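Please fill in the sequence for the structure shown.

STRUCTURE ENCODING:
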């Protein structure tokens, strides 16, 4: 049975060049980057070359990239640091953030008795920016944490617009950029963003590695203690093979960006047309015009009884899609993102997130649509 993998917002298949690079580092470049002998220095040079490559692809300084175990850690670190190191007295975010931000904001807000405000969300997933301006006008020291591309519905936030609002009111701006780094151009030198995060497994790199982008001049303290690695702010022996694999994956993502993007966007249109032909009453969750090119979330015009068995049925046929975010699949609870956006009626119907990569084909979509027809 052919596996049809349509869950690329959850994770992606590694590129073969990434596997080759990591295998080489694992077998040959095994030194501890903190060792002063040549074996260690060689491993250290792999890390610094990777950092420079990542920074060059994102238009920032190498020193602004700090390696972490992934985006969950990076988000938590930045949010905590804003409160502890930058003394913000309020966090403004939304209820449609990934749990790596939402739960961090709730826990850290509670731990430090910080005011937490959630902005209103339109039924297309758009954030209420008038409300943001209104809230920020009181001058309270604030961290604004808003994701760039929503991982469930793909709604895109205008980073320049939000960043400029934050700058005007002296607020720090953190964006969870996990779904967009490697998939759209970034030039952090020009972007009014103070903190951003990435996770390699979302752009055809390895799991368990990512980074925090921290604008130069913002001095953060470590979340854990124990060594001098990453300038002492993120200690622990570096995962050299993962870091090298991540740099390779990002480099390839940007080398192939234009062709991959237009191919994937075409595939998304094909999926919308094909699904609409089969299910004329299907609805696109989120924004049709302002949805990211690789994420399609649809509400199927099916009986709510079918909601729970639909993923099981597709899985039996070798089709991997997601209902909301990956951590919720298998659970009967509606997605916290869709719960903020959909009507009570639609939230009970089955919704599917189809997320694409350059490895997908029109045949994959045909197989999905045929399987849905059979339900
Ligand atoms: N933020 C978003 C938007 C995500 O989609 C994910 C992954 O699911 C994360 C954060 C967490 O990233 P990581 O797997 O690196 O911890």
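FILLED IN BY: designer on duty
SEQUENCE:
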């Amino acid at each position: 049975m052919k596996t049809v993998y349509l869950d690329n917002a959850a994770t992606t298949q590694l590129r073969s060049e990434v596997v080759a690079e990591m295998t080489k580092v694992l077998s040959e470049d095994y030194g501890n980057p903190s060792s002063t002998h040549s074996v260690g220095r060689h491993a250290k040079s792999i890390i610094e070359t990777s950092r420079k490559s990542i920074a060059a692809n994102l238009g920032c300084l190498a020193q602004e990239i700090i390696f972490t175990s992934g985006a969950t850690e990076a988000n938590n670190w930045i949010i905590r640091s804003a409160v502890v190191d930058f003394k913000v007295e309020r966090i403004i975010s939304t209820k449609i953030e990934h749990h790596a931000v939402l739960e961090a904001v709730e826990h850290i807000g509670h731990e430090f008795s910080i005011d937490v405000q959630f902005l209103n969300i339109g039924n297309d997933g758009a954030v209420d920016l008038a409300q943001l301006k209104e809230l920020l006008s009181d001058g309270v020291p604030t961290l604004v944490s808003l994701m760039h591309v929503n991982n469930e519905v793909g709604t895109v936030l205008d980073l320049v617009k939000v960043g400029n609002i934050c700058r005007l009111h002296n607020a720090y701006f953190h964006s969870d950029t996990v779904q967009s780094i490697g998939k759209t151009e970034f030039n952090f030198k020009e972007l009014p963003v103070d903190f951003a995060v990435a996770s390699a497994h979302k752009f055809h790199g390895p799991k368990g590695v990512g980074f925090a982008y921290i604008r130069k001049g913002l001095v953060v303290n470590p979340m854990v203690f124990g060594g001098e690695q990453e300038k002492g702010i993120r200690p622990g022996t570096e995962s050299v093979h993962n870091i090298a694999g991540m740099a390779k994956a990002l480099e390839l993502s940007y080398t192939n960006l234009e062709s991959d993007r237009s191919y994937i966007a075409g595939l998304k249109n094909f999926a919308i047309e094909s699904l609409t032909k089969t299910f004329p009453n299907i609805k696109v969750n989120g924004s049709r015009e302002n949805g990211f090119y690789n994420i399609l979330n649809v509400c199927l015009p099916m009986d709510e009884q079918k909601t729970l068995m639909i993923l099981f049925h597709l899985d039996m046929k070798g089709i991997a899609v997601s209902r909301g975010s990956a951590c919720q699949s298998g659970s009967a609870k509606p997605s916290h993102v869709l719960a903020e956006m959909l009507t009570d009626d639609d939230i009970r119907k089955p919704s599917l997130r189809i997320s694409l990569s350059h490895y997908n084909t029109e045949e994959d979509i045909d197989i999905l649509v045929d399987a849905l027809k059979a339900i």
